[in-house]
Recover the amino acids of this structure.
């Protein structure tokens, strides 16, 4: 408990916060108000950090904060703490909002009003947004909004955020109604509890100079906390703590359960309001019941989950072929056309074999990445993501984690960064850390180009069991290896470094909804831009640098291979070759691994540049063909075999190789200790895992 | 029949049956979390899916997934 910013003076508001229960549509409302495109999804915990946008009127601009969802102002997890700290004015770098928009799920008024009552307690001017009224109506629920407004003493606006219904009314209300006086507290505590509560709030104001609103909140918190009161001794003055201890005794003597009396009293009020304004009619067919009985079934649930995963990765491999070939052909044409304009020489080689070859080798995988995001978007938008967490809780609890940890892991299929951020919804700090440590083992989209390149080049496209493509099966296997490794490491960490009780599963499951094409397309578009930006910046720069290092110092005479071996890259590669030889890797692969330490997909551009430089004289054939034709002169055998390809893939499944992930780990853990540990353990795991696969593979392949 | 005889835990309530929350017998942290999710005294609950170690129930028009150990701590009475 640090500071207490004063409650807002109710003049024209400048800063507004949007708050509400998880998955009630806050970010949809935020996007519609600000014109931004923050990620939305149909599962709790999509927003885990505050997002800021602006809304402009003719005469002024208002700043709007979108906060992570929370059920109450008693935060349990890091994402909820962000929301509660801002609303309680506890953050020094964020101004206490002047007003609050409480987004309420119209289908679940009773529970959502609980948080509204806590916001009203903080003496904020409030607008209640009654969102998803269409879903409520589908459920046979109708709400008398005028009566609700009069009972709460605040403006109530019904909306359907996803269809922009009610947004103009909300904008007008933000402009006009926030200047009105804030609502006053209406829920009531039992008189004897209230007396103790008021005394304690007075003491807090006296000793800590809290505002009356903050004192009210902290008094409730101290009286109902399940923690040992002595844990507050650094923040709360001794006389206050002593008073709290006496209060505990008094409440017990009076027959009140201090843990539940505050929640129950609030709920008594919300129930009363809800009963007065909600009328329920006939419910339409509840598809969620029917779907849930199948997809969360103790046997069929797993079959469906793994079939979906198999379908996704098979589809990524097969459906993307045509656009990938088109992009590949486009880059080959670009190489030829550019080559015609630039006379032979270093500049020609730099552009053809450095820039175009390197960038083209990565950009060609854009269709696969788009498909991956399409499928993940569908899973998120339909509501299946939370069901996957539910059915996987059984497996997760075996390794000591909560089913909720599976959502960050599943998100890491797209990218480990949002995966690590999503761990903010996990209440237990140790479980959160374990989930963060293992999330990067899940195969992200940056690994996809590496897998695709090697699978297409070295795994035959034969059908297994008459319908499963072997290439697709190998692709799925890489994802499974990642998943099994993540679970195994989580088990190990929970048994050793981060011991702790396995938490029991409690999680809200959203209703199934038809996916929003708009949301999915926005996500795919933004990921494409990010991918192309990386290709146009980091990958282009690395490709050019690698071309230089693979070309100089120049050897005047000799074959292209000898020239490459003489270059800086060749010399460095031969230096590290003894370290990677036990894994079945040669020096070129070593350079690929080294250059991609900061970003995985650089491996593809590096290999493309190296082979392009080496085969510059021949100037024919695709990168895949060049790799397949690479013969070791000492053995006369191909350098790259199916086993080599599998070993490289296994290495990339298990190795960290991502600077951005390391940076996010540092931010989320407030130090270098855990990111350094993560990098070290994953590198050792990758080396050991690849070594084992190579040695076993030698006996069979 | 006395009231205590008709009490049951949520974990033992058959799917589709509508019941009311009587009380929660769990750690304070879990109790508070459940209360905030709407598992207050007299709240109406309907189990919709029961798995081997978890269940899904409907409360206040939302669905909540629960581990059986937690469902066992929620004492319910017939509506």
């Amino acid at each position: 408990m640090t500071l207490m910013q004063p409650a807002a003076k109710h003049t024209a508001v400048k800063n507004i916060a949007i708050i509400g229960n998880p998955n009630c549509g806050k970010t949809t409302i935020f996007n519609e108000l600000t014109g931004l495109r923050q990620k939305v999804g149909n599962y709790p915990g999509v927003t885990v950090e505050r997002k800021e946008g602006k809304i402009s009127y003719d005469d002024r601009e208002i700043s709007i904060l979108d906060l992570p969802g929370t059920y109450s102002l008693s935060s349990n997890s890091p994402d909820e703490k962000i929301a509660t700290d801002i609303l309680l004015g506890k953050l020094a770098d964020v101004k206490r909002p002047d007003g609050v928009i409480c987004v309420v799920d119209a289908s679940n008024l009773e529970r959502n009003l609980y948080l509204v009552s806590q916001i009203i307690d903080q003496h904020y001017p409030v607008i209640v947004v009654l969102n998803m009224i269409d879903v409520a109506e589908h459920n046979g629920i109708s709400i008398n909004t005028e009566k609700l407004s009069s009972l709460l003493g605040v403006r109530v606006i019904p909306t359907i955020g996803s269809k922009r219904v009610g947004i103009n009314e909300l904008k007008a209300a933000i402009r006009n109604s926030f200047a009105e006086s804030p609502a006053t507290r209406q829920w009531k505590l039992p008189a004897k509890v209230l007396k103790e509560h008021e005394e304690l709030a007075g003491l807090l104001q006296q000793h800590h100079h809290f505002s009356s609103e903050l004192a009210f909140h902290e008094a409730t918190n101290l009286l109902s906390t399940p923690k040992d009161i002595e844990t507050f001794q650094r923040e709360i003055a001794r006389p206050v703590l002593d008073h709290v201890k006496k209060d505990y005794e008094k409440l017990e003597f009076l027959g009140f359960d201090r843990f539940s009396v505050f929640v129950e009293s609030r709920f008594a009020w919300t129930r009363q309001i809800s009963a007065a304004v909600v009328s329920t009619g006939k419910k339409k067919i509840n598809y969620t019941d029917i779907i849930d009985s199948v997809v969360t079934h103790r046997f069929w649930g797993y079959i469906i989950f793994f079939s979906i995963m198999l379908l996704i990765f098979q589809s990524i491999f097969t459906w993307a072929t045509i656009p990938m070939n088109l992009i590949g052909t486009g880059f080959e044409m670009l190489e030829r056309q550019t080559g015609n304009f630039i006379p032979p020489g270093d500049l020609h080689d730099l552009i053809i074999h450095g820039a175009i070859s390197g960038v083209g080798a990565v950009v060609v995988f854009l269709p696969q990445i788009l498909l991956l995001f399409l499928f993940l978007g569908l899973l998120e938008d339909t509501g299946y993501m939370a069901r996957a967490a539910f059915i996987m809780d059984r497996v997760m609890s075996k390794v000591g984690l909560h089913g909720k940890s599976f959502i960050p892991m599943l998100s890491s299929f797209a990218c480990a960064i949002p995966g690590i951020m999503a761990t903010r919804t996990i209440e237990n700090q140790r479980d959160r850390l374990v989930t963060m440590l293992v999330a990067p083992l899940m195969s992200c989209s940056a690994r996809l180009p590496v897998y695709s390149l090697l699978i297409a080049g070295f795994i035959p496209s034969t059908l297994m069991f008459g319908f499963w493509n072997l290439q697709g099966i190998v692709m799925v296997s890489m994802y499974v290896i990642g998943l099994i490794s993540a679970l195994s490491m989580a088990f190990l960490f929970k048994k050793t470094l981060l011991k702790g009780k396995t938490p029991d599963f409690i999680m809200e499951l959203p209703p199934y909804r038809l996916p929003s094409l708009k949301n999915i397309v926005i996500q795919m578009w933004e990921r494409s831009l990010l991918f192309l930006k990386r290709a146009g910046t980091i990958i282009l720069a690395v490709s050019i640098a690698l071309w230089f290092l693979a070309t100089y110092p120049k050897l005047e005479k000799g074959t292209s291979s000898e020239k490459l071996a003489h270059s800086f890259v060749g010399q460095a590669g031969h230096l590290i070759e003894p370290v990677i030889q036990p894994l079945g890797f040669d020096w070129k692969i070593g350079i690929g691994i080294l250059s991609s330490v900061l970003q995985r997909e650089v491996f593809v551009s590096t290999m493309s540049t190296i082979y392009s430089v080496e085969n510059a004289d021949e100037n024919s054939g695709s990168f895949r063909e060049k790799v397949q034709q690479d013969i070791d002169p000492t053995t006369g055998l191909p350098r790259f075999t199916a086993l080599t390809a599998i070993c490289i893939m296994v290495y990339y499944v298990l190795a960290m190789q991502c600077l951005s992930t390391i940076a996010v780990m540092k931010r989320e853990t407030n130090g270098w200790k855990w990111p350094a540990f993560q990098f070290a353990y994953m590198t050792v795991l990758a080396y050991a895992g690849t070594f084992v696969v190579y040695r076993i593979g030698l006996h069979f392949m | 029949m006395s009231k205590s005889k008709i009490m049951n835990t949520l974990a033992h309530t058959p799917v589709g049956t509508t019941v009311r929350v009587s009380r929660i017998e769990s750690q304070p942290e879990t109790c508070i979390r459940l209360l905030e999710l709407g598992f207050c005294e007299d709240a109406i609950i309907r189990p919709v899916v029961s798995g081997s170690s978890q269940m899904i129930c409907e409360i206040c028009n939302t669905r909540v997934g629960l581990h059986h150990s937690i469902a066992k701590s929620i004492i319910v009475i017939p509506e």
About this structure: Chain A touches chain B at residues 71-72, 74, 76, 105, 107-108, 110-111, 114, 139, 141, 224, 226, 259-260, 263-264, 267, 271, 288-289, 292-293, 296-298, 301, 386, 389-391, 393-394, 397, 403, 504-511 (CB under 8 Å). Chain A has 30 helices and eleven strands.
